């Protein structure tokens, strides 16, 4: 079995993930902060520790401003629906996932929010002049996919924030976090949204959002927090303001394992290995005559994640994916919840095959994958 | 504050309780996390019970929004300002 769908979720997980998950489920199991007993308190301590560690991982200090969510989509919904009001304008790009496009379209139809989608190159890069030209007086935020889930193109976040000034920068870091360093402080990112089950190695069902000071989002959910229980008014202090109902404590505990693994390995080493796997894949695929690789121009290879979209000429992406699956090689085919990105790449509506190795992918697996693609292409 | 009295410090969130716990542990200040006494609040959360000199933590409290605090002499809880 060769798993190459790490852009959807990482698999396998490091043993640390399973260890922390197991320790919580078998040894603690309490509902965090909901009761006065030891197991509830221990569960709350785990969440506190992960919150502190993850806040530090993204270069920030106020851990109460780091909110756990179910996934990257919930984080992005929280940012967009919590921030935008009638007559606000938003700038986004033509490389966004539906987790950005659908909330924006909803806000456009329901709240009278307008948005401009700046066209990116077929590689997936944003033109800075076009970005600046799209800004209006009422532009409240720029929301941008840090690393494309299609071409792996990484946008220059620091430069973008320099250009947009005080306009809020909302970053979708689902693909980049844990793959390349992200320092919210130095990049001046205002709101960072991400999933934790990809390159941060938690189990599925964990995401997070960090909201800088001075930014107030209207919560999407209201309910029990274990605090202020005497009042029917929802708490106004973070993190309780945005976290209500029983959280995914097992998932958050597993994230502590993932973060511990990353800390022990070193992010630099992870970035380097994934870069090497990316280069091997891009070169290997380009060496097959019948294969078209989208993006990943040679001069920009350092600005791409290990996420590669391709097609075999005269084959549907679904056929290629089916043939790979028969060989127990798992990729993702179709539109990847990103119709606008496919339009940008010129692959809409046929879609592509996406191959995404992870840090735990072996070079031999990449070799076997390339051999299989060649065999399928030459049939 | 007199050393012979126990201090109860209530925070708005469990996050702040644990943030204070981290400081107390690091500074080896004697404390305990206990359920908020029901006669002080109907809240179902936890609070800090401080068995050490409150002066040791006073400057740390500047970075917290303390909900309320009390001095306990074994019989009654006296509201105090920290």
Strand and helix map with partners:
The complex is a heterodimer of chains A (379) and B (82).
Chain A lengths: L1 E2 L11 H13 L10 H20 L8 E4 L2 H12 L5 E5 L4 H14 L2 E5 L9 H7 L4 E7 L11 H8 L3 E5 L11 H4 L3 E5 L11 E5 L37 H17 L1 H20 L4 E4 L13 E5 L4 H10 L2 E2 L1 E3 L4 H7 L6 E4 L7 H15 L2
Parallel strand pairs in A: 1-11, 3-4, 3-5, 5-6, 6-7
Antiparallel strand pairs in A: 2-8, 7-8, 9-10, 10-13, 12-13
Helix pairs in contact in A: 1-8, 2-8, 3-4, 9-12
Chain B lengths: L5 E6 L2 H13 L4 E5 L10 E5 L15 E7 L4 E4 L2
Antiparallel strand pairs in B: 1-3, 1-4, 2-3, 4-5
Task: Report what the structure shows.
The complex is a heterodimer of chains A (379) and B (82). With 379 residues, chain A is an alpha/beta fold. Chain A has 12 helices and 13 strands. In chain A, the strands form 3 sheets. A 7-stranded mixed sheet of chain A has the order 2-8-7-6-5-3-4, sandwiched between helices. In chain A, strands 9-10-13-12 form a 4-stranded antiparallel sheet, with helices on one face. In chain A, strands 1-11 form a two-stranded parallel sheet. In chain A, β5, α6 and β6 form a beta-alpha-beta unit. In chain A, α2 crosses α8. The longest helix of chain A has 20 residues. The relative contact order of chain A is 0.17. The mean pLDDT of chain A is 95. By secondary structure, chain B is an alpha+beta fold. Chain B is built from 1 helix and 5 strands, in the order βαββββ. Chain B is globular and about 30 Å long. Chain B starts with 5 loop residues before the first strand and ends with a strand. The mean pLDDT of chain B is 88. Chains A and B meet through α2 of A and α1 and β2 of B.
């Amino acid at each position: 079995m060769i798993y190459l769908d790490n852009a959807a979720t990482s698999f396998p997980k490091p043993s640390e993930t399973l260890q922390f998950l197991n320790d919580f489920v078998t040894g603690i199991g309490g509902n965090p902060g909901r009761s006065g007993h030891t197991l509830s308190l221990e569960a709350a301590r785990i969440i506190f520790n992960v919150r502190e560690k993850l806040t530090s991982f993204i270069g920030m200090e106020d851990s109460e401003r780091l909110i756990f969510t179910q996934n990257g989509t919930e984080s992005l919904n929280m940012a967009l629906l919590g921030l935008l009001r009638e007559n606000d304008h938003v700038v986004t790009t033509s490389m966004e996932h539906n987790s950005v496009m659908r909330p924006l379209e909803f806000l456009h139809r329901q709240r009278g929010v307008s948005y401009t989608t700046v066209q990116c190159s077929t590689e997936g890069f944003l033109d800075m002049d076009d970005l600046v030209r799209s800004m209006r007086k009422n532009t409240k935020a720029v929301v941008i996919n840090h690393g494309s889930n299609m071409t792996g193109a990484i946008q220059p976040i620091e430069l973008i924030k320099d250009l947009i000034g005080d306009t809020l920068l909302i970053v979708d870091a689902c693909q980049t976090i844990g793959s390349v360093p992200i320092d919210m402080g130095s990049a001046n990112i205002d709101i960072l949204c991400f999933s934790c089950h990809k390159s941060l190695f938690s189990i599925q069902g964990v995401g997070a959002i960090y909201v800088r000071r001075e930014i107030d989002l209207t919560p999407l959910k209201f309910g029990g927090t274990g605090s202020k229980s005497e009042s029917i008014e929802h708490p106004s202090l973070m993190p309780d303001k945005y976290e209500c109902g029983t959280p995914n404590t097992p998932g958050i505990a597993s994230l502590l394992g993932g973060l511990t693994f990353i800390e022990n390995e070193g992010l630099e080493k992870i970035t380097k290995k994934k870069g090497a796997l990316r280069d091997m894949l891009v070169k290997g695929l380009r060496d097959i005559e019948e294969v078209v690789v989208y993006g990943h121009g040679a001069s920009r290879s350092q600005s791409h994640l290990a996420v590669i979209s391709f097609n075999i000429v005269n084959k549907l992406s679904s056929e290629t994916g089916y043939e790979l699956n028969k060989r127990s090689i798992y990729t993702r085919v179709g539109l990847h919840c990103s119709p606008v990105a496919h339009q940008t790449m010129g692959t809409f509506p046929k879609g592509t095959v996406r191959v995404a190795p992870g840090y735990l992918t072996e070079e031999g697996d990449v070799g076997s994958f390339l051999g299989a693609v060649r065999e399928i292409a030459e049939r | 504050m007199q050393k012979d009295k126990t201090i109860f410090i209530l925070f708005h969130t469990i996050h702040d309780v644990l943030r204070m716990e981290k400081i107390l542990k690091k500074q080896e200040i004697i404390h305990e996390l206990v359920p908020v006494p029901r006669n002080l609040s109907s809240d179902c959360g936890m609070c800090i019970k401080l068995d050490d000199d409150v002066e040791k933590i006073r400057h740390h409290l500047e970075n917290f929004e303390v909900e309320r605090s009390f001095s306990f002499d074994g019989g009654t809880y006296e509201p105090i300002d920290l």
